TrEMBL record:
Gene Ontology biological process: DNA-templated transcription initiation
Keyword Hydrolase included in the entry's annotation: no
UniProt cross-references to InterPro entries, sorted A to Z: RNA_pol_sigma-70-like, RNA_pol_sigma-70_dom, RNA_pol_sigma70_r2, RNA_pol_sigma70_r4_t2, RNA_pol_sigma_r2, RNA_pol_sigma_r3/r4-like, WH-like_DNA-bd_sf
Annotated family: Belongs to the sigma-70 factor family. ECF subfamily.
Pfam family, one: Sigma70_r2
Protein name: RNA polymerase sigma factor
Domain RNA polymerase sigma-70 region: 21-87
Entry keyword set: Sigma factor, Transcription, Transcription regulation
Keyword GTP-binding included in the entry's annotation: no
Listed CDD domains: Sigma70_r4
Gene3D superfamilies: 1.10.1740.10, Winged helix-like DNA-binding domain superfamily/Winged helix DNA-binding domain
Gene Ontology molecular functions: DNA binding; sigma factor activity
Length: 185
């Protein structure tokens, strides 16, 4: 079957046509991801994510060449994956370098844990419409546009919710710190 026919069929909901596209283009995706620097152990995960995105956005495909579109998706997924992997490795290396017994006083360690616990509790109390963008942006390093795509919102709505969420979070943290201060003071 010709690619254009398969794409049209897959766009119309034909899962066997979509499956054929995956089978036909998986080697291309895997090879490109590897050439971009992905490790062999990650290739399957990257390929899976690429084809999930293809499936999600196939109805929007209007480009003249499917492979061009597929390469763009593969490039983005691989970059994201490598960035995430590098952040993970950096954190792992940093943790490995930190001895269990540090020069920090136990009180300092407790304060850090207490601040993190307090932040976590305040975030949990936020309304979902503010909580999710805050988590995606500050803890998962998602850009405004990615949050827009994930939550299916306008870009201005994402920016507004992040700003309001940040202000609400700041207010909540100040209130909680006052309460904590009264408990210990």
């Amino acid at each position: 079957m010709e690619d254009a026919f398969l794409i049209k069929e897959a766009q119309n909901g034909n899962l066997s046509a979509y499956s054929e596209l995956v089978k036909r283009f998986s080697p291309v995706v895997e090879r490109f991801a590897f050439q971009l620097g992905a490790s062999l152990k990650d290739i399957q995960d990257i390929s899976q994510e690429v084809f999930i995105r293809v499936y999600r956005f196939l109805h929007q495909f209007t480009h003249s060449k499917f492979t061009t579109w597929l390469y763009k998706i593969t490039l983005n997924v691989t970059r994201d994956f490598i960035k995430k992997e590098n952040r993970y490795l950096f954190k792992a290396e940093k943790l490995a370098k930190e001895p269990f017994l540090t020069d920090e006083l136990p009180e300092d360690m407790l304060f850090k844990e207490e601040e993190e616990r307090l932040l976590h509790e305040c975030i949990k109390k936020l309304d979902e419409k503010y909580r999710i963008p805050i988590i995606l942006h500050y803890f998962h390093d998602k850009k405004y546009e990615e949050i827009q795509d994930i939550l299916l919102l306008n870009l201005s709505t994402v920016k507004t919710r992040l700003l309001r969420g940040k202000n609400l979070l700041k207010k909540a943290l100040i209130e909680e710190e006052k309460k904590e201060g009264k408990k210990h003071g």
